[in-house]
Amino acid sequence: MRKTLRATAAPVFAAAFVLAALSAPANADTTPGTTESDADIAAEWQTAWDTYHFTDTTPPAPDSGRSRVTNSISVDIDSPMPLTFYKYSDFNNHLGKNPFLKRVVTHKEWREAPATYRNLTAIEEIPYEGTIVVSKTHAQQRLHPDGFYYETDSWSQPNVVTHQKIDFSPLPGGKTRVTENLTFEADSSLIDFVAANGTASHQQLQEALKDAIESGEL
Question: For this UniProt entry, which residues form the secretion signal (predicted)?
């Protein structure tokens, strides 16, 4: 089942982000790579933060033309909970596990008890009909090591907001259950597509991280 998921999730995930990039205005690059500096990307992050307030979890108003869908997915990892938490929550460890993720740019990191905050941008390069679509996801991650969970809020084109809470629970035999609670918010015409493909991509990443942690690669 896991091999089938990996074989199908990647192209479906690509389609979701290609749709996002091609339906977006000027912010989505459609040339290979990106020549922007980290400062330029940080400025884009700030614009998304100021414009879309993507940490706001208020449900869309009924007449807004926006909708949200919440899904929950879990994976059991044969690794102790503290170790699993730190490896899984480090977005740099997602490089090579998400097939399109090429770079994670951390703009700011600080401690505000009881959480550690990180403002960051994930940059993905998605092959599409002989070119590369560059997609940027601007996010804030809040790690709670005292409670073994973290939260991430993010925004990407075309005005897709995602709220995540990832919980880590100990299992017998030194194993860990990772549960991702995912809330997707998008225009009502796109919400089913965004939620289905976003959930599939997270399932694929879960399985890749499971293999990397259990094998000792991470």
Answer: 1-28
